[in-house]
Design a protein that fits this description.
The chain has 410 residues and is α/β, with parallel strands linked by helices. It has 13 helices and 15 strands. The radius of gyration is 24 Å and the shape is globular.
Length: 410
């Protein structure tokens, strides 16, 4: 049986190293393009037929690959076998942590959703009890998915993640159970935990599943109760020295009543486009009823829903809603133009409740105004992954880590 050596950084790899590289290549091809026959693997990899036969048998023994069928009704034998990834050979979980809820999704090795659950969290709930209930939620979802264990758990949280420690910044002002949950999940489920900012995870989902699958470089603006951004340059998510890349709520911009401070973003871009600011703008344009539909709860969460309602009402009002949409687009464009002047990403995605509600109509208006403010051509698109973007991004992050562990990093 022949073996194949490959060149690595100008040197010829040993047979054992070549096998590792070939196995990794085949596994990623089976994940992305499979199921495949041995002949298709030969064509895609350029490896010899004996090397492919050896490779396939080796991967079958690991339990990661199995025969899943035959190609062609009239073909029989080894050359007709179709090989695929064994999806239930590993499982991952994604967790979306909000101030008032926890949501979990369990998926198999190919990313297919097997179980999805959520847990409401009342403001006055004991933090320790919330952590215990959240761990039980994830464990229960894993059990219903048939997962004997979870290989990785991805968690999306609001706030900054310290790049040095991988932990949630203690000064973020979030409920204490947010910082305790990752440790509890790791200890309770014996799985590595990957903590990431929620807006960054939404950007991962948009790039892999949504509006920017064709882009290597872009920014995502999260426009909702809070305001933030995620920056992806050359397919790499950029976090910054302190994890604060994208904290555009603090961006000083014209049109505000003052300047932001180190402890508050009220004078920054946040004060122009947060859900509360959108509601005020809607009222100024005679959309009081729509903007007030969900007002008055007093817990800080009503703004996003009310802003969504105002934007949808404006879109449905025809010409009467256009002044409000134009004014909102002008505000958003100020922030987009500022980001583009520094990063030149070529594309900005409008996410969060405001971006989702405004859709392509709001995105078009923002793009037109950015073109007037900046010489740098920038496409503006509406996010499409919706409210589940953070959860999907958490699953994808956990899945990447698991596949890199089992397949080897590509």
């Amino acid at each position: 049986m022949t073996s194949t050596s490959v060149s690595v950084t100008g040197r010829t790899a040993s047979p054992s190293t070549a096998r590792v590289i070939n196995d990794r290549l085949a596994l990623h091809l089976l994940k992305d393009k499979g199921p495949l026959t041995a002949g298709q693997l030969k064509s895609l990899t350029g490896l010899s037929r004996p090397t492919i036969a050896d490779l396939v048998e080796r991967l079958r023994r690991t339990g990661l690959v199995a025969v899943v069928g035959e190609a062609g009704a009239e073909r029989r034998g080894p050359n007709a076998r179709v090989y695929g990834i064994v999806a239930d050979s590993a499982h991952v979980a994604g967790v979306d942590v909000r101030t008032d809820s926890v949501a979990v999704c369990v998926a198999d090795l190919l990313g297919r959703t097997l179980a999805e659950e959520s847990l409401p969290v009342a403001p006055d709930t004991d933090p320790a009890r919330t952590v215990t209930a959240a761990v039980a939620l994830v464990a229960g979802a894993a059990e219903r998915a048939g997962a004997a264990r979870l290989h990785h758990i991805g968690i999306g949280v609001p706030g900054l993640i310290d790049p040095a420690t991988g932990e949630l910044n203690a000064t973020s002002g979030l409920p204490s159970w947010h910082r305790e949950l990752a440790t509890a999940l790791h200890g309770g489920l014996a799985a590595p935990v990957l903590l990431e900012n929620e807006v960054n995870l939404a950007a991962v989902a948009e790039q892999r599943l949504g509006a920017v699958r064709d882009r290597d470089t872009f920014v995502l603006l999260w426009l909702g109760h809070g305001v933030g951004a995620a920056v992806v340059l050359d397919r790499v998510l950029r976090r910054g020295a302190s994890g604060g890349t994208g904290e555009i709520g603090f961006l000083p911009v014209p049109g505000t009543s003052g300047l932001p401070s180190a402890t508050g973003c009220d004078g920054g871009f946040h004060s122009l486009v947060s859900s509360a600011a959108v509601c005020e703008l809607a009222q100024e344009h005679g959309l009081e009823a729509a903007a007030g539909d969900q007002a008055g709860r007093g817990d800080g969460t009503e703004g996003a829903g009310a802003a969504e309602a105002a934007i949808r009402a404006a879109l449905g009002a025809g010409e009467r809603g256009e002044p409000f949409l134009d004014a909102l687009a002008a505000r958003i464009a100020v922030g987009v133009a500022a980001i583009c002047a520094v990063l030149d990403p070529g594309c900005a995605v409008l996410g969060g409740e405001v971006g989702r509600a405004g859709g392509e109509e709001l995105a078009r208006r923002v793009e037109e105004r950015v073109a007037r403010l900046s010489p740098l051509r920038t496409r503006v698109r509406a996010g499409v992954v919706g409210g589940g973007g953070v959860l999907r991004g958490a699953v994808l992050t956990a899945l990447d880590a698991t596949q890199n562990e089992l397949f080897g990093a590509p």
